[in-house]
Structure formats: C-alpha cells, structure tokens
User: What shape does this take?
Amino acid sequence: MRSRISHRRRRNISFPQRRSMAAQNNQEHTLGNLLREKARIVEIDGEEGFDYAEHDTNELNGVPFPGSHLKQTVTGVSIVPHYLQTATRNLVHDDLQTVTSETQAKTTAECLPYVTGKDTQGLALNSHGLPHLRRKAHAEYLRGFLGELPAGYAAMDASRPWLFYWCIAGLSFLGEDVSEYRERLMETVRPLQNASGGFGGGHGQFSHCACSYATILALTAVEGLEVVDRKAMWHWLGQVKQADGGFRMAVGAEEDIRGAYCAMTIITLLNLPLELPPEAHARGAGLQTFTDRLGEWVGRCQTFEGGIAGAPTNEAHGAYAFCALACLSILDTPHVSIPRYLDTQALVRWLASMQTVAEGGFAGRTNKLVDACYSHWVGGCWSLLQAAFSQSSATRDDFAAVTELEPSELWNPAALIRYLLTCCQQPGKKGGMRDKPSARPDAYHTCYSLSGLSAAQNLYIYENGITVDAESGRLTAAFNWLAQRLSPGKAMQELGIDEHDVVECVHPVFVVTFDAVMRAKEQFAKGGL
Amino acid sequence: MGKYSEDPKWSDIDPLPTDEGGPNPLAAIAYAEDYEETMSYLRAVMAANELSPRVLELTEDLIDMNPAHYTVWLYRSKCLFHLHSDLHEELEWLNETALQHQKNYQIWHHRLTIVDALGEECDVQGEQEFVARMFEKDAKNYHVWSYRQWLVKRFQLWEKGELEFTEKMLEEDVRNNSAWNHRWYVVNGREAEGVKGVTDPEIREREIKYAEAAIAKAPQNQSPWNYVRGIRKASGTELAALKPLAERYASVERPGTVRSSFALDLLVDILSEESGGKQQAGKALDLLATTYDPIRKNYWAYRKSQLGLGSIETAATA
Assistant: This one.
C-alpha cells in the first residue's frame, strides 16, 4: 500500500499547512484512508466505467451526502473529481437570473463536456485520461508569430514587444531552444529603443513601461541584454516615478500597478542604481530612490475585498494581484515585504475564491468568468504567497530532501491543469491555447497558460539569503528562488499528468526561465552605469 | 501613391519609413500601405516636434486605424493643449470613437485629460450619462469604472446621485461586482478627507442593510458577502455582529440547510473568535471542504490548520 504522506510536502520548511508527523500518521491509518488507497489503485489500473461516487470518502464514512444517488459514471480512465460531480455543483444554487449568472451558466455549459471528459475533441489522451499537452503544436503556433504577420496585426503595432516576449518565453517554457532568435531580436528591438531611454511599442513610439518590460524579458530569455542602453533607461524610469511612490506607464500616461512591477523588474534585472536620477521630479517631493513609498503605494491598492486593484480604490483584479506580489517580492524577502504592506489573509481568501466551479481555472474578478490567462496571473501568486507565509528559512539541503512533490497546498492545481488541458488547447492542426473553448487561441493566452501550468506542476521555494548586494546595492531577494521540476511519481498521478505534459520551471517573479534570470544576474553583477 | 504624399499640404514633410532594425525582423507586421504611410508621416512630425492642426488630423486618422496606439493618443493631447483647441469638440469626437471601440483602453485616459482640462466648463451630467451608456454594452468595463471614480472625485459628485446610480446598476445585476466596488468608493472614498463612511454607525447600518437585502435576493453571490466583511474590517467593528446574517444562510448543526458557502465561510470566522467556538468553526470548514466548496479543499484545510485544528474530517457532518 502506498503511504499517504509520501506525497505530502516532506521537508523542514514551514508551510502554512504543515502538520505534525503524528497527525499525518494518525490520518494515514484510518479506515477511510485505507479504502481511499484502494480506490486509487483502481484508478491507476484504469478500470473501465469506474464509479468515483461509489468510492467517495463521504459515502465510505457513512455521511449522508446530498444527491449521492445521482452517481455519474464516466468512461475511460479519467475520473470526474468531487467538485465536478453534478450533485456537488448544484448544492447551493440561486434562482434569480441576471446577466452575470446567465453568462456564467453559459460558460459552465461550454466547458463541462471537456472538463468531465465526455468530449475529448480528438486530442491524444495521457495515462490519466486527460489530453496530453500538445507541445509540438503549441511551439509551432508560437514560432508562427515570430515570422511575418498579416496587415491585420497593425492592431498590435503598439504592443509588438509583447509578441516577442509571449512567444520566446512561451517556447522556453516548453523547453524549446530560443537562442536562435538572439541576433534577430537584438536587431528588431534596436529601433524600438529611444535615445532618451526605454523601449516603445515600435519605431518612433514613446517609451512605455509594459513595452520596456516585455523587451527586457525577451532579451533576457535570449541573452541579448547588451543592446539595452542602461543609463538612458535609468533616466527614463526617473521620469515615470511618481511622488506618491507609484509609476506611470509612460510620461503623461496612467499610473498603475503594472508600472510598479515592470519598472522594478527592469531595474533589478539590469542592476540599475536605486537612486533616482537628479532630474527626476519625484525628488522634488522628497523621494530619493525608486523604492521610496513604493511598498506603501502597493499596499494602497488592496481593496475591501482583499484582492488588489490596478490603482488605489479600483476593483480587485487577478492580474494586479500578481503585479503587487511580484513587486513586493523584488523589494525584500517575501515573508518580510508582503505582510508588511498587505493583509495576507484577506488576499489569500480572495485569491482562492477566484478558482471557478465547475471549470477549475481562475477568473480575474469576483463574479467574472474563467479565463486561461489568469492561470498565470492568479496561479503565479501562490508560490509568492506561500513564501510570504513561510516563517523559517529554507535551505538547499531541505530542498534536496524533497523526494515527492505536491505542488501546492493553498489552492487546487489539479483543477487548473484539468481546465488548461481539456478546455484551453486548440484542437486540430494549428495548436495554441485559448481563454476558453469558444475563444480563438492567441500568443498571450498560450504564454500565460503555459506559465500557469508550470505554477501548478513545479515546486518553487524561497531560500532565505542576501536581499541587498553589498557592492552594487542591487536588490537581490528575487534571485533567491529555487525550483524543482515535477518528477515522475505520485504527484504526477494526483495532478493527472504524464512526464510529457510537464513544462519547465518558470521564475515566480520574472516569468522567464531560471537560467535566463541567473544569466542576467551575472551579466550585470557589477552594477554602475 | 498615398493620401499624404499626394497632398500638397504635406509636401514639406519627408516621411520617416519604419526602421525594421535588420533584414530579418521578428513578428514583422506586413503593414497596409495607408497605415505605413500615415505612421511614417507621424514619425516625421514627431521628430520635428510639430504641433499643428494638420497633426491633429493625422492622429485622428491613425486612431481610426489603430485605437490602441498609445503614442498617437499622447501626442494628440500634447497637440490639443498646445493649440488651445476646442476641447468640447474633442469630447464629441471621443464619444463616437469610444462607442466604436468598446474595449479600448487609451481612450479613457485621454478623455480624463480632456475633461480635467475643461474643468468647470465640462457638462458633468453629460459625462455621467455617457459613462452610463458605456455600461449598457459592458457593465463591468474596468477602465470605464475607473474613469467614473475619477469623475466623482474630480467634480465632487459624492452626493449627486452616485449612490442611486450604484443602486440602479445593482438592481439590474446584483452580481455586478464592479458596481459594488463603486458603491464602496462612493461611501468610503472621502475617509482620508475626514468625511466618514462606514466608520459612521448610521452609514454602516445602512450599508449592511443594503447588502443584507442583496444577499436575500441571491445568497450564493460573493459580492455582498465581501462587502459586509469589508465594512467590518474598515470600521473595526466586531465580526460577531454579522452572526445572525451568516446563520440565516448557513448552519453547522443542520448542514443540509446551507444556502451559501460564503455564509458558511463567514460563520467560520465568527465562531473561531468565540470562546469555545473553534471546534464548531472546524466543523464548518469540514463542511466547506467536503461538501459545499470542495474545489477549495486545500484552502479550507489551510484555514483549519491556522486555527490549530487537525486536518479535514470527512465525517464532520455525521
């Protein structure tokens, strides 16, 4: 019999849910667990027509489970999880219909045949009955965007750097070699860089935080950062830093939390001085560095719901939660900086509530619909939050001792993986990933679906270490992350994936591969301008 | 030959064609001729820092072709202010453009700049009505709500029908979380200026009653539950005051009667603050994990561990 504890986190790191060994052992020897293990063995054997409801732990324990008579028999080896069972889904249901409930019902109806495995869209299935990740097809799809694009893409003329980033990063998440794009990318971005610093969306366009962020990350991925005029970038960032602590997206443009995250990413990867340039107008308000009042400004973006808004008083939104947590994780050790500026318990409640029933993916706001891109924006928050909750220090030795991984304990990674593999992969020749089945695939959703898959599959831990480089003054907390790729075993089985479906480790703060981040760290170790 | 190269009005300009950086650019867009031409004239006038009426025409042309072009918007506003252009006219043009490009992002920042400059000359009621019209198409448009907040603050509309506006929006869809967020803003947005929101007992009472009525319409609606929790936190008042509300929709003793997982979640927090209530809170968490919200099983187990209780028990409901 397999031991239940073998697939719990086993290491000397304090995670929020870590229990004593005694409690685990106690749990392990209950009758319910013995029977559950038996049920798992049946699952592995892939018995046709296995009825999950019959083995449901509630029933095994003699619990009157409402609607348990409505057993759902599935074909194939894919087992419909508890949260997807018809009886569970319909337990609490309001009669009042509004636009929100109607669109939600429509989305659930659209996804249900796929997440329950009734319709596999002709996709090749893995050993757990879920569609395999279509690695080759998605890679080909992303490569396609890096060639010539038809005139209709003029709509993306101001966001071409995003295309470089989504495609190159997405390919690297699939384990593809992206070094072949190095020279071409360096050439392509040259006219996007302005003499006064920063990158615009295209030739002759104003510098913009998002365009600069995407360009820097794409260059990081291909080892091409020497094309960046660091000194000019430093001067330009000085112009977008605001007296209240935040950053504008461009000179004269809106101030929002993306600016804060993008600017701090650029500053840290390029090891730019933290001191504001002499001409920065924020100096007039008494600010001296890029980080002055920044944590407080990020804190002001937390709303009454617990989530994070794009700017103070706006509505809580998943993408901005990631920007906030990642920005704070650059400023300092996550368990220092995150609780200092945010109510973490309110945030974790809000983030957990974003996982939608029955789809299993994440929505971006309360009462909005599931969308694959939030697999990254919300999915990427968990490792940052877990590091925020972790009180004691992790070391490389603890990490090496991890033999079996369960990627997360605050949310439901298996449900997210199921959503991404069943609903978000475009079937047919073309490949690519999409928001939801009724949407067309695009580079944005492909990149962030893959990043979300990585968040759900691989393990990321923060290793306590140096947070400021003594010589250059660089903030180094974001370089202290360790990652472990999911290895074959129990955890894979729990997540419903095979080795073929595992994507590379994605850096929790900078959202490129770890190798790329480490190269940038080395390249600019000296700092200065 | 194109529109600009054939126009004598533009004959003094040497267009700056797109620099692709090299022979083999990545994600190179095969621009339509008119787009490429218009952009090459924009580059040229921007390089010369020309701010003139013909530049306004040029930017209008480009925005029609690509409304997501932030540079064109920023340059246009620079031009408008330099020329002391008629901003009312600009607003009229923006109205049409906004309705054509519902999802566009840049337009709202531009509008804000224009309306801010108009100041007291602005027809504020007209702005409110226009925003309301945008919500007819998408009642949760993030940028439009953000603009609406700015409008309230800029023109001090706090007590000028804004609360009624949120009521109307929530009457249409009680699950519209953006409208709930706006309500929060209208009620609490002036705390820093010393105007009390939910820290005032009367206002707090009114807001809780409003949320309670919304919950009664549809108990499994997260928005008003988040709202009452927010009130409790912002006012520093006891969560226990919400116990009757939570118990109306959730019970640990009669698990079969739970009508809202959010009520059960709230009950957990209330019970865990009561002396001797921890075990009951644990039972409520078991119910959430096993029955009423199993997708978040790991989260509920985490909450249980936070209370110093053991793991999720599947037999809790027996």
The longest strand of chain B covers residues 28-29. Strands of chain B lie at 28-29. Residues 248-318 of chain B form one domain.
